[in-house]
Write a structure and sequence with these properties.
Serum Albumin, Chain A, Domain 1, seven-stranded antiparallel beta sheet, 20 helices, binds glycine
Length: about 575
């Protein structure tokens, strides 16, 4: 019997040897994140008996130290949780507009958008949510105390870590880009004497801030010396944040959006992210499609996904925003009936120009009869523990290094998330995304996001934890990983590492990464009527999948960038 299972196992292994072999495998826990030190921080907590949520909080704080482009204290994010006992939650710690924000704050007297105002300096800063979000996650779903889970991050900030090439490179360009932002240049660019790869980077100011949070929790960040310095640093660069904005900030537990794709449960982030709804609505539109006879990244495959993407992004522009300020027709957008209506004009041979795809209006939506009642620089990380608890986190300062405002004396950057609002109806933001009333600026409102931390489960058990950075491309990146695994049967590390493409309705263009579209396929697509534009930087997917051979977990960091994983 034993002999037979060995034969069977070697047969399975030899078949799967045709695919890329995983290099990160663990039965007790896996963490996949941008930096190795952050992954190790998570594994350290898991080894001490913490669960995936404890580890995720440790990873998040570690990334605030090792990945200052996106890991943060001065930004926000979303955490999707699937506990082994069946509990499901979405933690919303998205930034909020300050109390003094108003709809036209980024327009000049003639009503034109003032370039850069929502991107650099104090007005670009939304009220940060990360510290409150981590505390909420720990209180509700963690098992360890804050003082323990923050230890690895404090050590990294105090003792330093070796600067990898990509970070030294980013510090180099920040040195030029952040001219006038003295504290930022002092901390991250040694005032012009830029860091080299391989040097040790110590952050004593940041260590002090982390210790304050470790000791006092939210009070150590949203009140007292950190809060006062945050307000004065933002004001120095034109910001209007007030102490009251900070003390009023709360993170929320929301119900994740839930869909179903070919028998898999898809759990993702609800508004104020557009990610979960757009992802599930696209998967619903894809479900009637048959990928069996379609070549991967053939002209036909790209047409199928591009047409689905255009329709979902058109609706995103009108129907998605902060649910506390705008009634998002969530149930309808997530329904299979909506997907059928949306794809009524789809033809596998035809390109529908974006100009003839309109966001659904009130009447269209009212016509949907539900069958019954049955959910550019950013970073994503995934965590699983030995009990099968799974956590998917995407967090950000928005652009790389956010607003460029560093809180004086406390060593952390502030976000430029205000640019994710629609500064003017119908005008694209820095990701080219169009927004309208649903995402107009209002005091205390949360700006719409594309972040899509997602977990897939089968029969109640987690099979995939996935997400990505990449602004507007986040949603189509996650979509393609799922499409690659479910419809093209790729192992997770291939599904993550193959190149990707993206359509977001406007501009009416397919963007594609290196190697995503072969020259002869490009000829076919152009003949169909598509415009194609090459583009670098397609997110950094950091995924974990249940291993089909040995039953543990396989970590799949995106090797197109400089990502990592750790397991035990
Ligand atoms: N800041 C990018 C996003 O939230 O989608």
């Amino acid at each position: 019997m034993k002999f037979m299972s060995v034969i069977l196992l070697s047969l399975i292994i030899s078949i799967s040897a045709l695919a890329t072999q995983p290099s990160i495998y663990g039965e007790n826990g896996v963490v996949v994140a941008h930096d190795l030190e952050a992954c190790e921080a998570g594994i350290e907590i898991l080894k001490k008996g913490g669960n995936a949520v404890d580890a995720a909080v440790a990873v998040s704080y570690a990334l605030a130290v090792t990945h200052p482009q996106a890991g943060n204290l001065g930004g926000g994010g979303f955490m999707v949780i699937h506990m082994a006992d069946g509990q499901k939650a979405a933690i919303d710690y998205r930034e909020m507009a300050p109390g003094q924000a108003h709809r036209d704050m980024f327009l000049d007297d003639s009503g034109k958008v003032v370039p850069q105002l929502s991107i650099r300096g104090g007005l670009a800063v939304g009220v940060p949510g990360t510290v409150a979000g981590m505390q909420l996650a720990l209180d509700k779903y963690g098992s360890m105390q804050r003082k323990h889970v923050m230890k690895p991050a404090i050590k990294l900030a105090k003792k330093g870590f070796t600067i990898p090439y990509d970070l030294a490179y980013s510090f180099g360009w920040l040195n030029k880009a952040a001219e006038g932002f003295d504290e930022t240049r002092r901390i991250f660019c040694r005032e012009g004497e830029i860091y080299m790869p391989g040097e040790i980077f110590k952050q004593p100011d940041l260590a002090k801030t982390l210790k304050l949070i470790q000791r006092k929790g939210n009070a150590g960040f949203y009140t007292g010396s950190v809060a006062e310095a945050l307000i004065s640093s933002s004001s120095k660069y034109g910001g209007k944040l007030k102490l009251k904005d900070l003390t009023n900030y709360t993170a929320h537990i929301r119900k994740p959006v839930i869909g179903n794709y070919r028998g898999l449960e898809v759990l993702s982030m609800p508004p104020p992210s557009s990610g979960g709804i757009a992802l599930i609505s696209m998967l619903n539109m894809m479900e009637p499609m048959n990928f069996d006879s379609v070549g991967w990244h053939s002209a036909q495959h790209i047409q199928m996904l591009a047409e689905v993407e255009k329709r979902a992004y058109a609706d995103r522009s009108v129907w998605l925003g902060d649910p506390d300020y705008f009634t998002v027709p969530q149930e309808k957008l997530l329904s299979k009936e909506y997907a059928t209506l949306r794809m009524v004009d789809y033809d596998s041979l035809i390109v529908t120009p974006s100009d003839s795809i309109y966001p659904l209006n009130d009447k269209d939506l009212a016509g949907i009869e539900l069958a019954g009642h049955e959910s550019e620089e950013t970073t994503h990380f995934s965590v699983v523990d030995k009990w099968g608890n799974a956590v998917s986190v995407t967090t950000t300062l928005n652009w790389s290094f956010g607003s460029y405002v560093t809180v004086k004396g406390f060593g952390f950057l502030l976000n430029n998330e205000m640019d994710d609002f629609s500064s003017k109806p119908g005008e694209p933001n820095s990701f080219g995304l169009i927004g309208n009333k649903a995402n107009a600026i209002e005091p205390k409102k949360r700006m719409l996001s594309s972040m899509t931390p997602t977990i897939l489960a089968k029969d109640g058990k987690v099979v995939l934890i996935v997400g990505a950075p990449g602004g507007s491309t986040i949603i189509t990146t996650v979509l393609q990983v799922i499409n690659n695994m479910v419809d093209f049967e790729m192992p997770v590390q291939d599904a993550v590492n193959v190149p990707r493409f993206h359509h977001q309705w406007r501009p009416d263009v397919i963007h594609y990464g290196p190697g995503a579209i072969s020259p002869d396929t490009a000829v076919l697509l152009k003949a169909m009527g598509y415009e194609l534009t090459p583009r670098y930087g397609y997110g950094e997917v950091n995924a974990i999948a249940r291993d089909q051979v040995f039953g543990g977990w396989v970590g799949a960091p995106d090797l197109k960038t400089a990502s990592h994983g750790a397991a035990y």
